[in-house]
Amino acid sequence: MELSWATLSRATSAIAPSLLPFPHPLFPPVSISQRNFKKCRVFCLSTSHSESKDNGMRVSITGATGFIGRRLVQKLLSDNHKVCVLTRSRAKAQLVFPVNNFPEIVIAEEAEWKQCIHSSNAVVNLAGLPISTRWSPEIKKEIKHSRINTTSKVVDLINNGSTDLRPSVLVSATAIGYYGTSETTVFDEKSPSGNDYLSEVCRDWEAKALEVDNGVRLVLIRIGVVLGKDGGALAKMIPLFMMFAGGPLGSGRQWFSWIHLDDLVNLIYEALRNPSYKGVINGTAPHPVKLSEMCEQLGQVVGRPSWLPVPEFALKAVLGEGASVVLEGQRVLPLKAQKLGFSYKYPYVKDALRAIMRES
Fold it and tell me: Is residue 64 pLDDT above 90, yes or no?
């Protein structure tokens, strides 16, 4: 079957950005229609910082409006914890968390971050500019600075508070891009960093988080490709498969280190509550797969063939330098999470995809 350049370009531009190893903050939130909401009065809770676990946690979150953040907020609220959304745009946050539906959420713009962080038991840092675009020198600077600047602000606010006002734990996102790419090497939490651009971003990102006061428990979760129905990779891949246009990128031999959205949220949630969770933890499932297997399994689940591989030259034409991430991939194992006894709901990609497709 002959394919035109235009067809390859459209298919590649739809699929390729979704497979970069940063989930959120890599993937922008699903768009929501504009609606008018009453302006939410921002406040922070002033009761005792050392509130007992029985009464719930107060958690301040950057990146709460993203793919991962939205599900984490829902998880925390369902367990009667309190959430402060740290945002640069109240209007954007109110579109995702309208006050009529989420009256219990505190929405705080930057001037109010300090008050919220100092009245929280925990902070989760998920923010960062999406990288699903062709990398220019300017975009690469923005990708790096958005992660480092937000992390720096959060860490400074924590450190500048008096001891009794500091949260007890900071869970800060990073990514498996830390390890670089390889078709043969197996990476775990003790593996050294790579030497490419994303490795540099992750090293600097983590270094800034490591500046947090040593009295605050720090958890760095290196996140893989996050699978869920309403965002991330699958939100872009499923429509292509339904149109009989899905398939692996490049050779298909590259490794695909993934995690179901629910497992990642549960991992973050456990890291907030369990003092045994410290340092670097890989946020990936225990059974990574080759990209060809991932696409084959997805095709079976949606009832469509995985027959249209996107050639390497087309991917490079769309992503340029960023194409190396999906053309090479990496095999990352979550040894730390397994040692800590974390229980995966979806350890195998086939079960994860089936569960996602069953969601309404």
Answer: yes
